[in-house]
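Reviewers of the previous submission asked for a worked example of the structure-prediction workflow described in the proposal, so we include one complete record here. The input consisted solely of the amino acid sequence. No template or homolog information was supplied to the procedure at any stage.
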Amino acid sequence: MNDTLNLLSQLRIVPAVVIDDLDQVRPLADAMVAGGLPVIEVTLRTPVAMDAIRMLVQRQDILVGAGTVMTLKQFEDVRRLGAQFIVTPGLDEAVIRHANYRDLPVIPGAVTPTEIMQAQNLGVKLVKFFPSHAFGGLPTIDALSGPFPDMKFLPTGGISLENLATFLQHPSIFGCGGTWMARREWLQTGQWQRVREACADTATVVKAL
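From that input alone, the workflow returned the following structure tokens.
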């Protein structure tokens, strides 16, 4: 578990990707790795998501997570496929306790003080702040870091290449998630060079900090 979180803390970016066709998997991963961003969160929003995770895990050159995980069955399904971390849109005690039992990192969604307290009491030290822009973004995270100094945040939603550095410079922010480096429409139209360039630009921002 710690090895995965340590690697994520170095990369500082979690690209959330929607895959509609398995033919997208190989060129997508090639472009992301070539761009210096060897990490992906495959969201469970399409019928091929599970098979995409399986294919990506087999590569062994990219850190593979599963996103939009909402049930214990989904958790177990992606764990068996070899997913290295789990991201949930909200806070589910059963999933968190199961993740601890399985020793698999889970990043649950939490945006209110109540949810963050619940997460903290379950031993969680990193939460997904989603949708970031709708809940106030950086000013809200800054305010929450006062009563929760030990909690780290992974804001997603409203993050872009333009504001990425500002978010990453905040001491309570572990990293950022988003779709700007692998947009769904780029995948659907085979714009792999744009993916590679966006990943490279993102990696450059991280390295400059």
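The two ends are 25 Å apart (CA to CA). We consider this example representative of the routine output the project will generate in years two and three.
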